[in-house]
Amino acid sequence: MAQLDTRAKLEILADAAKYDASCASSGSVKRTSRDGKGIGSTDSGMGICHAYAPDGRCISLLKILLTNSCIFDCHYCINRKSSNVRRARFTTDEVVRLTLSFYRRNYIEGLFLSSGIIGSSNYTMEQIVEVARSLREDHEFRGYIHLKTIPDADPELIHQAGLHADRISINVELPTASGLKRLAPEKSQDRIEDAMAGMSDAILDTADAKKHYRSAPRFAPAGQSTQMIVGADAATDRDIVSRAAGLYGSFNLKRVYYSAFSPIPDASAVLPLQRPPLMREHRLYQSDWLMRFYGFKPGEVADAADDNGMMRLDIDPKLAWALKFRGAFPVDVNTGPREMLLRVPGLGTRAVDKIVAARRGRRLTLADIGRLTVSLAKVRPFLIASDWRPVALADKADLQLPKPAAKQMELFG
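Structure for Biotin synthase, as requested:
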């Protein structure tokens, strides 16, 4: 490991970080270096493309691991102790220099840093915090920093991470406690949730202090997020939606990310042989969106699942829910409440807001709705307009559903 140069380490540790999906940066505090001091800037409310491409395209965050060595042996992890992979480790100074160098070349806008566990959880967390501290204090780096923290580490170290980072991630790893115990026996759901609760309390306390004291320090201003691996255990989509809703409610999370399990070399016999379809991950993100932006309760989103607790792959959860509860439709665009318009398949939040604003001045026709949405064919069966009334969905038992796209066969499959 000591013989590897920085470029070789970067190749290994950037590739090892690709399995971590929770690296969004929206909601960070605006910082600039226009006063001639410091380096870097961020702009609150703006998302960043987070892909780290080996050929240098579309890089915004330097997304790396401090090391892919680990003392834990989680079955699903490519970097587990028993995995036969090439190992590498950065020093804290190397990560700092790489971040500043990439920023000065206009490759990135910030850093996403995670790590395997080396030595102990506390030692590893100290190294992660030192990177962020050095960037902020020694180099006045004002770009975005996202740190993946270690729940087993001392709470004071996790608190220090929040003082330097814009966002903190604490992964719950798997949707159920039984799945975590089976596939990651060295990790504890109670310790993970205790760390998330401590971070949530600190974020709320600091936000309250900022209202009263201008000098109060910033603390993880972009909040905290988490990630769940989908398809490594027997958890259904209904289980996952319920777990995500509980996390949002208990810890005030900004995002729950989903990562479809990917089979790894020399995999444990307890893991499934095939990865779940990526469409399953996509449907879970859509379900998450329904809870966060469309007013659906967790139980209502779960109702969109089939009898086995799984989201349909051929249609999105919103349409699946509408077809299960046809009696709630059609909705009159001229008189229907906003919360019901948000449940119409094919209408997004912006389209609904435009409809509510436009109907104050006149009655809307189907053509008006067509100008406000990109999918008129999808919304027609669920809406009433001044010149349009569909056949009641309850009378359309043979309502045609969109057919799944044809799948290209593999030539050498």
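The longest helix spans residues 189-212.
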